[in-house]
Structures are given as structure tokens and as C-alpha cells.
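Support reply, case 0932

Customer input (verbatim):
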Amino acid sequence: MVSIRSLLLVFIVLFGVVVCQSRFRQIRYKNCKSKLDILSVEATECGESGTRCPFTRGSEPRIRIAFKPKQRINKLETAVRAKLGSVFVPFHLENNDACTGGNITCPLEVGKTYYYSQSVKILNEYPNVDVQVNWLLQNPEDQSNDGGRREACIIFLAKVV
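Our regenerated output:
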């Protein structure tokens, strides 16, 4: 027989999962010549309205990209840059290996849906500023000179508050 305590524990766990999942919000983004089929882009700390995601200094917003590869991929690296005016400033990531730090496991198979997810620290030293965020997933094994390393490229608008 199932005890009330067991049912309560299951309810608490399920409620926590639902609350954590609901923190992600679809965001407006531009696909900048991705080789992957980008299915959706979501972020935490983004409200229901507005064109810019407000990222609070001292926080760690998380980005989630759903995608399907068109070819087998053995390795992926993450690069994040903020465009301030005409200058690109790299965001420091503690782990730029998307296959170990991005909630996915490589190799990636053709046609399977993956949910890459990674956070980025918004340091207290960052000024209050509007930024264009360029989020890239790159294949370090692709040696082509035509920008072929870029498997995924998305651009979205944010503001540091």
C-alpha cells in the first residue's frame, strides 16, 4: 500500500520539475546560417513580453536550444559573444565543451532531437546596457574555410540590468 508520505514526496518532486521547466520562456531569435535544424530557443529570466531578455547582474541565466543535426557530429564547442555597438566581447564560459557542459552527449545522431542547455554568468561588474547576444555551437573537427565550423548560430537581444 502506498503511504501518504510517499505520495507527498512524489507530488513535491513533480511540482519541482514543473516549476523548473516553466522558468524557460521562448525568446525571439535570428538563425544566423545554422547547419543544424533549430527547433526552438528558450531562456530563463525572460518575461512574457518585450524584445529584450533582462539579465540581472549577479545571476546565471540559462539558454536552451532544441535542434536536430543533419549529419553526425562528434564534438561541439560553445562560444558566446555580446555585441556592444560595433564591438564583440566574448562571454567567459566555465566549460565551452557543449558535449559535457551543455546537457547533451556526443556523438550526435542525424535527425534526433537534442536539448542543449547552458548558463552564463552575468557579473556584477557588467554595466547596465543593451546587448546583442551571439550564441554559437561550433564543430572543432570541421576545417573548412567557409565558416563551416558553425553548426548552430543564434542571435537574440538582451539587456543587463
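We compared this against your earlier run and they match. Two observations from our side: The longest strand covers residues 150-160. The longest helix spans residues 4-22. Please reopen the case if you see a mismatch on your end.
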